[in-house]
Every structure is written in structure tokens, then in C-alpha cells.
Amino acid sequence: MLIACISIFGMNLNAQEDFRNNLKLGIKAGANYSNVWDENDNDFEANGKAGFVGGAFLHIPIGKFLGVQPELLFAQKGFQGSGVFLGEEYSFSRTTNYLEVPLLFTFKPFPALSIVAGPQYAFLLSQEDNFRSGTYSETEFRDYDNENLRRNTLGAVVGFDVNVNHFVVSPRAGWDFQTNHGDGSSSTPRYKNQWLQLTLGYRF
User: Fold this and answer.
1) Cβ neighbours around 91 below 10 Å, total
2) Is the pLDDT of residue 182 over 90?
3) Which one of 38, 66, 92, 177 is CB 3.0 to 4.6 Å from 44, fit for a cystine?
4) Counting Cβ atoms within 10 Å, is residue 5 exposed (0-12), middle (13-18) or buried (19+)?
5) Which range, of 5-9, 19-23, 56-60, averages the lowest pLDDT?
6) Is the CB of residue 158 less than 8 Å from the CB of residue 117?
7) Which ranges of the chain does DSSP label H, i.e. alpha helix?
8) Nearest C-alpha neighbor of 49 from the set 121, 130, 136
9) Which residues contact 60 (CB under 8 A, 6 or more apart)?
């Protein structure tokens, strides 16, 4: 991703076209670096975990400087950690696969830069837990069939897009803050995802 960013920034920006008034459909792929935090336990510590993210986006202009950008992404998140229990070292990792729908508002001060922010709805597709201690290891995989669209995790995403003609580099940061149970009720999850994201995309 770093090589790709350097290559894009090395292009001749004099040839940059202004697409701010255009409807744009795009695809993108990259990586998440995610972790969780527990607001009820100050002693809880976890290490970050890298995962894949990819999908499609649609930019809908509202004039030259404003727009709306819904996205549809498959994203891997999770965390990992290790410690000692009863004198035995152990390691644990969790990988969660989400279908994410960010609904981003865009501010486009320049053709080459768009600032984005907005809510994100995430639907948990599957979860894999790996535990290892000495010679013992266990893997548990759970698949979730969620037909109720009101059952989701609500979060927030902020970031920006660097646009060079048809290419776009998209750094993002995001946080989960509410779980919707699908019956009209909601709660604050004890373990919240937080992540950094970097993708490279192409706009048609």
C-alpha cells in the first residue's frame, strides 16, 4: 500500500481532472488494523490484529463541494493477546467478519482531496476464536445468519480520500458505540471495535 501511495503521489498533478460534480462508482481494497477496548475493565489489554477489507462505493454529488458516499464493504476485525494462567502460557486470537455499510458525507474543498465522515452499520457474518496453551489448542468458528437488518452494530467513521484522476487512496478511522438488538432496543457493547483502515481504489 505504501508503494502504491508513493506511485500515485508521484504522478503529474497538472493532469488532474475535476470529478467533483460527477457521479462515481468505484471499487477498493486494502487492510484494517483493529483492536477492542473494554470500558468496564481498566486492566483489560489486547493487541491489534490486521485483516482484509474490500468492497464498492458510490459517490453522489450534491453540488461541487458536498456529496454523499455510501459504501458496501467486507471487513475483517479482531484482536489477539497472550498471558499466563495457572503457570501455563496461553495465546488467544479472535477474527470477526463483518458486512459494513458506511453512509459518509463528503466535503470536497479541492479536486484531489475529499474529507469524509458519517455513521456505519455493521452486520456480523462470522467469528473465529483460536486458543492455544502448551500442547492444547482449540478453534471455534461460528456463522451468523442475520436476516433482521435492524440487528446491527452502529459506529462512526472519519477520514479522507486522496483523488488522482481515477485512483483514490482512502485512510479511515472508526469506532463502534452501540449495538441494536433488532427489537427496538439497544445497548452499549462492553467490548468495542476500533480500527484504522487504508485502501486503494479505482473510480469508474
Assistant:
1) 13
2) no
3) 38
4) middle
5) 5-9
6) yes
7) 2-9
8) 130
9) 23, 67, 68, 69, 70
Helix (H, G, I), strand (E, B) or coil at 3: helix
Q: Does residue 162 have a pLDDT over 90?
A: yes
Classified as helix, coil or strand, 9 is helix
DSSP, residue by residue, 127-158: EEEEEEETTEEEEEEEE-----TTEEEEEEEE
Of 59, 73, 72, nearest to 111 by C-alpha is 59
| φ/ψ (deg, to 5) at 8 | -65, -45
In CATH terms, 28-193 corresponds, of 3.10.620, 2.40.160, 3.40.50, 2.20.25, to: 2.40.160
The percent of residues in the chain predicted with pLDDT above 70, rounded, is 80
pLDDT band at 12 (very low <50, low <70, confident <90, very high): very low
Q: What digits encode the pLDDT tens for the residues 100-149?
A: 999 999 999 999 999 999 999 999 899 898 888 877 788 888 887 766 66
- Domain limits, the chain: 28-193
Q: What is the pLDDT of residue 161?
A: 96
Distance CA 179, CA 76 (A): 18
**151's grid cell:** 440487528
Q: Which three cell numbers stand for residue 144?
A: 451468523
Question: What's the CA gap between 200 and 53, in Å, rounded?
Answer: 10
Burial class (CB in 10 A: 0-12, 13-18, 19+), 33: middle
